[in-house]
Amino acid sequence: MSTAAGRTRPSWKVWAVAAVLVVVVAGLLHAYRNTNVLTDDRLCGGLVSAANADAVLPSSGRVSAEGDGIADHLPDTECEIEKSSVVIGGGKGTLSVRVAEERGDFPFVDARWPDPARASFFSGPVTGGVYEYDGWVLLPEKCWTTKPVIVEAHSSKPVSDTHAFGALLTDAARALAAEKACGTLPKELGTPLPLRSQAARPAAEGRLCGLDGFSIRGQVPAGRGVLEAGQLAPADLWSCTVSLGGDSNRPASEDGFMTYTVARDRLLLAAVEKAPGTYRGTAPGGRDADVVEPQRIVLPCGGGAVYLAMESGLQYTETREHDPDAARRDVFLESFVQSAAKTFGCGTPG
Q1: What is the pTM of this model?
Q2: How is the beta sheet containing 304-312 ordered, strand by strand?
Q3: Which tens digits make up the pLDDT trace of 149-192?
Q4: Which helix (H) or strand (E) holds 62?
Q5: How far apart are CA 163 and CA 59, in angstroms?
Q6: Cα 258–241–284 angle (5° rounding)?
């Protein structure tokens, strides 16, 4: 049929084809911008699994990344992953993944990492820890140079799936080790050690933090309740923060009175032994020990060595300010070492 001007009007078939093309293009655009259907299986030059990144970052959307992949010098490796969507409620989140050289007991002494008592650790074939926003995994020892090397990740959104976060880090560490031919890591992450309690809990008398015969009630002001939060002994990697009840100073209460840490994990112990300045000395109570710092030691124990560390918090500082006769740090350290030695079978002092 012709129009009055003599032009041919498009037939219904043409309109139908055009409509189908519009739908297809719109569908492809939606898939590209809001799903991972068209996303590569691995991001950042093969460093990170797209599926793992999708599982860690909350909400729906497409994951994309910026990063050149594994660098010749491992600590130069960095990757920024983003999950975004134009769908209402899709949200946006970012995940920074990088490689770093650290001192061996970095998760317990470096202030840029959260309180270790708030971590979910895993130990064994894979050594690492994850927090609400952050996580790390140690690379195999053959990948180290002068210092231990880790893969770390930091999320802009809270990560609710501990296992998924650990799996992402483990997979990235495995890709790095394979690329550099410096070791192997398993494909599957083991079960992370039990999560910390969501709030400080009353400590069991004589079993503070799960250690046999451990108590500080005679060393703190009378009438103050003793609370604990964190993992419990015995375990291959744990940390426990002890606080005193009845403190109206919120910052001090949150920082706690003392934080105790124990590690029997083979790879973490190898990392700790690389700390500069470590020397053969004596632990409180007379046991032979490798001394990393005055309040960080490695004891020889049945079945292997044990790393023990103690860190005082703001509550302890305030207690000493109000009561100069309160017990000194070395008193708390000695009782901790004695109880840990008993729990982990470290024998008698020399």
Answers
A1: 0.83
A2: 201-202, 226-230, 237-244, 258-263, 304-312, 296-301, 288-293, 279-282
A3: 999 999 999 998 888 999 999 999 999 999 999 998 887 776 66
A4: strand 62-66
A5: 17
A6: 45
